[in-house]
UniProtKB/TrEMBL annotation:
Record keywords, A-Z: Chromophore, FAD, Flavoprotein, Lyase
Cofactors: FAD; (6R)-5,10-methylene-5,6,7,8-tetrahydrofolate
Function recorded in the entry: Involved in repair of UV radiation-induced DNA damage. Catalyzes the light-dependent monomerization (300-600 nm) of cyclobutyl pyrimidine dimers (in cis-syn configuration), which are formed between adjacent bases on the same DNA strand upon exposure to ultraviolet radiation.
Name of the featured protein: Deoxyribodipyrimidine photo-lyase
Species name: Thiothrix eikelboomii
């Protein structure tokens, strides 16, 4: 009798899940499994905010499975050891999983597959990307480093694909193996700071699909312009659902294309939205082909860049939203309270850190990885290198966001700043984005740096690097 272990990772859904579908289709017994591997995996280890989301997502998945007379088996330990133990306990003949594409997971999975193939049949699938990273290459066989030609090549492969249905029948084993309880994984913090953060979210596959439908019904037609306005609901906020695989990119593309067929007037919004999904695809693609970018700049010239060295006080002020620059502080406090930050504001806060304060981009990437519920490793690395000027499709090194002008342009009435900085709620519109001057009576810190002087210093150091 065939028995399959389905190892869930960043694919916490039952619909359009290739590993799950194939196991239920081809095996007589199916055991859903999640492994919390505590071994130090450096960048691929989840940060504190993401572990909170994971706890709720696992609870949601377990509830879905229970409603279908199945169970989610939870284990903590080294992935290979846990899998080998369960193969012995259950007599499993097959192991299925969906691939992760970061270099740490790829190397681990390669070793696990080689070892397990001595005992059972092992199959892995693609559930996270529209296309495998090795399927979209230039004519000379090399990977793309610029988004636009990558996007055009991706379109040629066909981004709209048929979806796998949720299995109608889940074949259960005759005897279930032991499962740890969710609390034993210790995903939640000792102090309950997570409760306020998660009050802003609904977690799980059902919530993710409902959010996508609501976005298409109410927001996507204005998406092209509204997505840059942090004070309004102008984005999909699907990023954490994508990160944990509660929703897959194929599902998003197909539903968006179906909506476009019914409402052609939404064309500009839909196309812009699909290009943002492709940016996520590009991030995973780049990390696969250039794994060194986890720690090093893609543009090797930046190995010579003169970053600041004594910056702990400035870094802490930035982390705590106490820079004295309203749009930046609003973004950092939104992050702290909700585990998320608007994308336009992410670019602004990253520019201040790397270009005005000259703090290495790796510091910002590490902070985001720990505090974002959508801390996707590939997206995070791509975004920080893009803003710092050292990555693929990077903003030119001389493009330094002025956070005052950015605030005035994208939060003109100051609604976003007032929402997250109550100490500035009484400021007039014309003053809301301007750092205070000494003695003006506001309970708000002085600016962390002189924006003009720090911009000039950054340009000088970029020039030295190029020379």
């Amino acid at each position: 009798m065939t028995c399959a272990l389905v190892w869930f990772r960043q694919d916490l859904r039952l619909a359009d899940n290739p590993a799950w579908f194939e196991a239920c289709r081809s095996c007589q017994q199916v055991i859903p499994l999640f492994i919390d591997d505590p071994s130090p995996q450096t960048p691929s280890q989840l940060g504190a905010a993401s572990r909170v989301w994971l706890a709720q997502s696992l609870a949601s998945l377990a509830k879905q499975l229970q409603a279908k007379s199945s169970r989610l088996v939870l284990r903590q330990g080294l992935a290979l050891t846990v899998l080998q133990d369960l193969i012995k306990e259950t007599g499993a003949s097959h192991v299925f999983w969906n691939r992760c594409y970061d270099p740490v997971s790829l190397e681990r999975d390669k070793q696990i597959k080689a070892r397990l193939k001595e005992q059972v049949q092992v199959q892995s699938f693609n559930a996270a990307l529209l296309r495998e990273p090795w399927q979209v290459l230039k004519s000379d066989g090399q990977p793309y480093k610029v988004y636009t030609p990558f996007w055009k090549a991706l379109l040629k492969t066909g981004i709209t694909q048929a979806l796998l249905p949720e299995p109608a029948i889940i074949p259960s084993p005759k005897q279930w193996p032991h499962s740890q309880v969710l609390a034993e994984l210790k995903l939640l913090p000792t102090l309950p700071w997570d409760q306020g953060m998660m009050a802003h979210w609904q977690v799980g596959e059902t919530a993710a699909y409902a959010k996508l439908q609501a976005f298409l019904a109410t927001t996507v037609q204005q998406y092209q312009t509204a997505r840059d306005r942090p004070a309004v609901v102008g984005t999909s906020r699907l990023s954490p659902h994508l990160h944990f695989g509660e929703l897959g990119p194929r599902q998003i593309v197909l539903l968006a294309e179906q909506y476009l067929a019914e409402y052609p007037e939404a064309s500009s919004g839909i196309q812009t939205f699909l290009q943002e999904i492709a940016w996520r695809e590009f991030a995973g693609y780049l990390l696969y082909h250039f794994p060194q970018t986890l720690h090093e700049p893609l543009d090797q010239r930046f190995n010579q860049f003169q970053w600041a060295t004594q910056y702990q006080v400035q870094l802490q002020r930035w982390q705590q939203g106490q820079t004295g620059i309203p749009i930046v502080d609003a973004g950092m406090r939104e992050l702290w309270q909700t585990g998320w930050m608007h994308n336009r504001v992410r670019m602004i806060v990253a520019s201040l850190l790397t270009k005005n304060l000259l703090i290495p981009w790796q510091e910002g990437e590490a902070w985001f990885r720990d505090t974002l519920v959508d801390a996707d490793l590939a997206n995070n690395v791509l975004g920080w290198q893009w803003v710092a000027g050292c990555g693929a499709d990077a903003a030119p090194y001389f493009r330094i966001f002025n956070p005052i002008l950015q605030g005035e342009k994208f939060d003109p009435a100051g609604e976003y700043v007032r929402r997250w900085l109550p100490e500035l709620a009484g400021r007039a519109v014309k003053e809301i984005h301007h750092p205070r001057v000494l003695g003006d009576g506001w309970n708000y810190p002085l600016p962390i740096t002189d924006l003009s002087l720090s911009r000039r210093l950054a340009l000088e150091r970029y020039a030295q690097m190029r020379a």
